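Class, study these two lines:
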Amino acid sequence: MRLLLTWLINAAALFAVPYLLKTVYIENFVVALIAALVLGLVNTLIRPILLLLTLPVTLLTLGLFIFIVNGIMFWLVANFVSGFYVAGLWSAVGGAILYSLISWALSGLLLKK
C-alpha cells in the first residue's frame, strides 16, 4: 500500500511541475502516472550506473554534476513517454529539481512512519 501511495505522490508532484515551469508539459494525470512509474524505474536501474560512470566529474564539481545527471534522467523519460515533453536539458534540470522538492514535501506531509 505504501508503494502505491508513493507512486501517486510522485505522479502528483510530476503533474505539478508544469504549473511552476512552463517549459515542461504533461497532457493529463494518466501520463503523469506513467511517467512517474518510468522515472522510478529509470532512477532505480540506470541512474546508479550513470553516477558511477560520471564519478570523476562529480567529484571534480563537488557533487554539482548530480543535478545534470538528474536532468538527463528526467529528459530521457520525457523522450520515452508520449504526452510528457521537456524543452531542453536546462529545462529538464529545473524540472528534476522541482519534481524532487515537491515529491519530498508531499512525502513528508503524507507518509508517516
Notes: The radius of gyration is 14 Å. Residues 2-110 form one domain.
